[in-house]
Amino acid sequence: MDIKRLHPLVAAAVSLAVSAVSPAADINAERERWVAHSRSGDTQLTEAVTALQKLYQESGDAKVRADLIALMLRSGQRGAALAVCADCRPSELSADELANLAKAARDTKQFDTAAGYYRNLQTRFPQNKTGWLGAALVATDQKKFSESEKAVREYIRRFGTDKDIQTAEEYLASQSQSPTGQMGYLMARLSKDSDKESVLKVFRLADSVKAYPVQERLLETYPQYFTQTDRLWVRKNQATSQLRGALDADDQADIRNVRRKFSDIAAESDDTSAVHTAALRDDMTAANAAGKPEATIATYRKLAQQGEQPDYAKESYAKALLATGSPNKARKIYEGIAGRQMAENKRIADATNENLIASYADSLYFSKARKQLANWNANKTRLDFTQNSEIKNPYHDKKHFWEARLDAWNGRPGKAVKHMDKWIAEHPADPWAQILRGELAYWNGHAEEAQTWYGHSQEFLPPDAQYLAQSKTATAQVAAGNWKPASETAASVSRADVRYQDFFTRYDKSRAPVLTVNAEAMKATAPKDGTEWSQDARLYSKRSTQGHRAYVAEQTDYVPNHGDALRTGRAGLGAEISLYPATVTVEAGHGFSLNKKAYAQAGAEYRLGSRVRLKASAAYNSANTPAKALKQDVYAHEYTLGADYIHSGTLSAGIGAGLMDFDDGNLRKTAYATVNSNLFQHDRWQLAGSLRGDYTANKDIPEAYYYNPKNSKNLEGALMLSYTLPLDNRLQFKQTATAGVGRYWQHSQNAENTWQLKYGHDWQFGKKASLNYEIGRRQAMYDGQPEFQNFGRLGLSVKFN
Description:
Elements: H1 8-38, H2 42-59, H3 62-74, H4 78-84, H5 95-107, H6 111-124, H7 129-141, H8 145-159, H9 163-176, H10 179-189, H11 196-208, H12 212-221, H13 228-249, H14 252-268, H15 274-289, H16 293-304, H17 311-323, H18 327-345, H19 350-362, H20 366-372, E1 381-383, E2 390-392, H21 394-409, H22 413-426, H23 431-443, H24 447-458, H25 466-480, H26 483-492, H27 501-511, E3 514-526, E4 528-540, E5 549-559, E6 566-579, E7 582-593, E8 598-608, E9 612-620, H28 627-631, E10 636-648, E11 651-662, E12 667-682, E13 685-697, E14 711-726, E15 731-746, E16 752-765, E17 769-782, E18 785-799
Antiparallel strand pairs: 1-2, 3-4, 3-18, 4-5, 5-6, 6-7, 7-8, 8-9, 9-10, 10-11, 11-12, 12-13, 13-14, 14-15, 15-16, 16-17, 17-18
Helix pairs in contact: 1-2, 1-3, 2-3, 3-4, 3-5, 4-5, 5-6, 5-7, 6-7, 7-8, 7-9, 8-9, 10-11, 11-12, 12-13, 13-14, 13-15, 14-15, 15-16, 15-17, 16-17, 17-18, 18-19, 19-20, 20-21, 21-22, 22-23, 23-24, 24-25, 25-26, 25-27
Signal peptide: 1-24
Domain PgaA membrane beta barrel: 521-790
Keywords: Signal
């Protein structure tokens, strides 16, 4: 345009118009350029926001402001977006600005501000869906569910049902209803044509509330949306839920049923699949509960080939290791789990702590086990899961009970008994305390007293726990030799019932056929002589259900006798007859070598309550007849009486007297008294002591070839220091060093000192075999002359069950 050729007034007007249009056009172009630039990437978006901020500050243009707010929202700068026009009146804002600012306010949880923007949007732009949709959403955010429902209804009235309002309805349902309610709401909206996401949403909700029938219905109705793995997961989760219920109810039949389900799932799934692994891990828990720890161990070893296992699987494995006699392996696993829990949560889970205590106890680390007790909150009450109400704290009782157990196992049974007696005095109706008190009596060798305590507990035990007293009573009956009621229990209970597993283990072990072999050798070094030795072997039959059993016995003795060797022995048949509270033993057979006669013997032991055992025996052609007497064809018959007193597992005493009537006219009289005590114990170390006194008197038989002092007395004491090492795989090793001194008095001879030193090993091979052996040196006295002897002993016991 040529302005110079226009009328001056017209030219002036045109000039003003051009000057006004050009800046506006430039701002609009600049705005559009930066909006386009923002779409190229994150860096460009940041640059565009900065540029539009500057442009808005310079121009105050509404379109620039609208795009600036939109770009800030895109870049996550919600607070900055709200601050762009904090002083603007809502009436000055466009529909897009109101919607964006409402979203920014809602995203930053400024719900009242967001609601205000949405209301303004509804008023000024009623045909804009966002105002009504946003109002429903923000009302749900504010827990104003009735307002949200009203907004939803208004939206549907105005615009009908669409995906956006359905999403808002789902959000409202998720916030206002329980998961079960949400599931019902979503289920009601499903149809045969529902899309996969809608179906899967219901499926996941059903999984969260363990509504397995709903999942099964979805699998059947919408097979196109699910795989075989999905179906296996439903079955696996259903079985896991069933297992929890079975464990809570201690329902062994249900536990076995669940194990079959896990086995089927594992068989139908790929070995490397997650559902296969999950089924095997859960089956480990079920196998432990079913009394099948060996199966748990086998499964874990299979899983371990796939890589590191989670702690809950390791806990199942460790529990199985404890049950199968591998406390050291179990302890290391529990220590690792406890360490990780401390690192993550600053505390050890209560259940893990108890497992760790048990593993320390089985490893004979009682002091470490006691330290772990401090990890429990031992207050009488604790907060429930809501953290609002006080409930009984089970670990208050557990801590006291574990203290008693650890005292008993660590050589302080008296302290443990006092602890529980005090507890029961304060809690006379506590059946679990009475059960433990019975166990303390059982461990102390007081089987009858244990039964009394178990009987007391039955008055207070709930019906579903009566089995505990019954199984422990039967176990104590086995220990006491009261076979009739024990066998009645065995006949009335299924061996598949894991609750009676400990009873059946002890019942079978005590009835099993057994071979025992004991041998001893001694060589005098000053004065020198050959090696004297003896051996005794017995093979017992299986006990009948009444407690009777037969046996075969063989005994051989060899005396070098300074070159004139003497050998004697015997072999016979015997029987143990259970007549509780008495046990009668009879045996008869014939001697061989120097012993040319038949022999017969009978003995009886009577249990006078829990603590006293009375004993009596008579033998025709006694096994204790000296070989030198048999060399002279002198035989002896022996009669004994005795009594033992068992004060506790750490203190016992015994007395006895006997007569041995020799064919040569000698009548040997004997008497003895003995005391044995565990003096001190700390974990695996134990110091025990014994004291024994003997008296012997004989008639003067000048022609007697055997050792026959007119009378003699002997007093000896010994200290035994032992260290017990529990190994894994049901192995246990114990080594003992013994030092003893004594004083020996013989008629017409000076009193002399005696001594002995010895060292031995005891091996326990599971539940079926044990082996012990020892070597030593001692000084004995014969007719006033010292005799120095090297000696050794060997003992073997093997059960066949």
